[in-house]
Structure formats: structure tokens, C-alpha cells
Design goal:
The protein is mostly beta strands. The chain folds into 3 domains: 49 residues, no CATH class; 230 residues, no CATH class; 179 residues, no CATH class. Helix content is 2%, strand content 45%. The protein contains 1 helix and 30 strands. Strands 3, 4, 5, 6, 7, 8, 9, 10, 11, 12, 13, 14, 15 and 16 form a 14-stranded antiparallel β-sheet that branches. Strands 17-20-21-30-24-25 form a 6-stranded antiparallel β-sheet, with no helix packed on it. Strands 18, 19, 22, 23, 28 and 29 form a 6-stranded antiparallel β-sheet that branches. 38% of the residues are buried.
Length: 463
Amino acid sequence: MSITKRWFSGAGRKRFRWTVTGASLALLAALVPAGLASGETTPLPPPPPPGFPAGVLRLHLGADDYFQWVKSGLPTQTHTQAISGKNNCSFTLGNPTLVDVTALQPPSSAVPGLVADGFGVKVQGEGNGQPCGRFDAPDQTLVLRLAGLLADKDMVSAEIDLEAKFGATIDIALWRDGVLKASFVWPRDFIDPGRADDGPDSGDLDNFRLQIPPTDDASNPIYFDEIRFTPSAGAGSLEGGADGTKACADLLDPPDEDCSEPIIDPSSLYGSDTLFELVDVYDGEIECLKSVTEGDGIDSPLATFWRLLDEGATSVGECKDLAYIFRSNSGDQTVVLIPREIDPTSTNKARFSGQMTFLPYLASNPTEARLEYDKDGPGGTAGYTAMKWCLASSFGELPDGQPVVLNANLPSGETYCIASEETVNAAAFAADADPDELPEYWRELRTTWWVYGIEEDPGFRFG
């Protein structure tokens, strides 16, 4: 069984969305107290959030063409992937990479096209004109997939600028990690199909605002990293606001639009662009006196963090509920720990003891090993700086005998500090290391750091 809840906050409103899967309903019924009469309610502790906000992905087409990641809580901090080469039925996506755009059609000669501010599918024989700026029935599929900087994110909602032609009926498929998670058919019953006319582009008259999830199924959020558009009739184009399609926030009484209220709030900040709401899906909950481990020390840093008792707590029962994201990244050799309190009314800070061993480095004299950390982690503004040593620290054991940093005095303004550091020959980490068989290990060093810190969003790296 899994039960998840999403929390949205916007101007003057808070909304909750639930998903119940598997054999959940029978189990939930069994959990209701026997004496609770029908219609009565009893307060339940809130479940952990399934995703932490990660911002908005914009598709903007017009005078300037780009995908842009606007990070959560930081509307001025963005990453932009330029789109060039438009209007000759080809295009180039720049760096940094945020998304990949591809096409599917049997046989596999299909490629994505971009014409007149619309993404479509080009197949052999279509030329470089308007047809390759559309995906046509019955089997042309346009695919948009998160990649690069967004490869570890998920989409959870969208407001899409869709141009439809020839009485289009379009299948929308949501995929995650190569698995189909959900699909539905556009247009909805209440949308006037006559607007998907057979004539030339008529501005926003043949454009529609498509909302995901559909407005009549908003209680079931779906996490996806890929979206596919396949018309079973007519044709469509994925657009980015050039025709002036109104955002959901600006459609006060939309009789034939698929957004009775905006999901991405306030979507009007982004004009008529196609928008995707991004999240970091959490790994789980971490209880006090429990640990989480990531990495293998071979391709990525080996890191373990133990959650200590919260500030002011004297027992596990006094600890607040805490969800987390924990990553050991092989690409940039960083470790990231993002805790999120489930009960936002709690004032006590969670405390952590951590042990990190990064990959080997060439021996030198003096030894050059430095641990750096980013106080506010991904999406923050602090940046990486050298971590300071604790003013004082004490080691001890958890009830299971595990040694940890039980407590430490943090330097002023710091949220983490170094309690201990050990540098050894890398051969000590190689199984059955032999100087003749593994000479490289005897020329390299590895450093292990013990750290202590409080509940923030730190990132760590070998400096």
C-alpha cells in the first residue's frame, strides 16, 4: 500500500491531493477505530510529502526560443537551454541540457521538427514546411524528456500550449523511468472540437491550454519524466506562447479550456509559455537513531548519515517526522542531504552525524585534502566554501553500538562542522590489495571525514 499527499500553496489557498494505490482501501477501512460512527472524523498525522518543489520548466517560443528552469523559491535563479535553427524544420538544443526532444514513428526515420513556433514530427517525404511542425495521425509521436540538469527531477503537473488541427484527437502518455504511468485522451468532453479547424494557423483561436493532470482527476498526482503526444485523428503542435494562448491563471471563466483553476501558481508570471511543475521525489522518512547510506566509494563517494535525537529531545518518541532526499553523485562527486520536516509547526532542529569517504586522489606532500560544503544545497545561493572544524566535539555510541559524533559546538554562522579527519593509503580500501597487482592504490590516498550538523540542505564535496 502507498498513500501520498501533495501540498500546494498559493495566493489565498492551500490544496491537498491524495493517491491511494494497491489494496489500500481495505486496509484503511481496517484501521478506522471500531467506535467511530459513519461520517465522524478523527485527526490523523499528515503523511510525508512525496515531492519537494524544484521549480518550473518553461518552453518559450517566439522572438526568442528556449527551455528555462526557474528554480523553486528563487525566480531570479535560472538555467536556460537555447533553441536555435528554427523554421527550416530542424533545430539545435544548446547547453546546459534540460530536456531532450525526440520523435517516434515506425519505421524509425522520424525526427522532431520545429516550424512556425511549433514542435512536430518530420518523416521522409514531408519536406521542410508546415507538416513537420505538426505531429500527424495516426502514428507520429513527439516526445519530451527531462535530461541533463533535470535528469533526477520529475514533472507532476503541466499547463501546455497545444495547437490542434483537422478535428484532432490526441493521446497524451506520461512515462517515468521507461514505464508508462498514465495516459488520457484530448480533447475533453467540454472542449469545442470545431476550434481544431482545417484552415491555416489562426492565432490563439486554434490553440488550447491543456492541463495535466486533467481537471476532473486532480486528486491523483502522477510523477513523470517524459511526455508523449500521439494523435489518433487530425494533428497537433507543441507550442510555447507565440500565438498568445492564455495561461490558466488568466482564464477566469473558460467554457472550453482544460483548466478550471491554475495548477502552477501563479502561471500568469510566465505569459503564454508551456509550463511543467518540477519536484524532487523524496527517498523516504528517517527516524531518530537510524541511518541512510549512499554511494560505493568506487564510482561515487561513500556516505552515511545518522540522525541523532532532535534538539531538546530526550527520546526517539520526541523526535519530529522527517522526510529526506539523499544523493551521492558520481558525475560531480558530491553528496547532498535534503531533510524536510513533515510537520512545519515543529521548532526543534534535527541533528545529524555523518561519515564521508570520497574517491582516491594522488598522494602529495603536503597532503591536499579539503572538505567543502554548500550551506543551502541545490537551488541555494551560498555556494561551496571550506567547512570549518568544530569548536569542540564528542564521540560516542548509539544504542546499537554504532560510533557517531554525538554532539559538537558549531562555529558562528555555520550549520555543519568537521569533527574528525583521517587520511590513509587507498590500498586500505581495496579488497585483498597487493602492491604488485594494484600499484596505483599505493600511490593514492583516501580521506574520510566525520561531520556534525543541524537540519539544513547541505551539499558536500572534496575540494
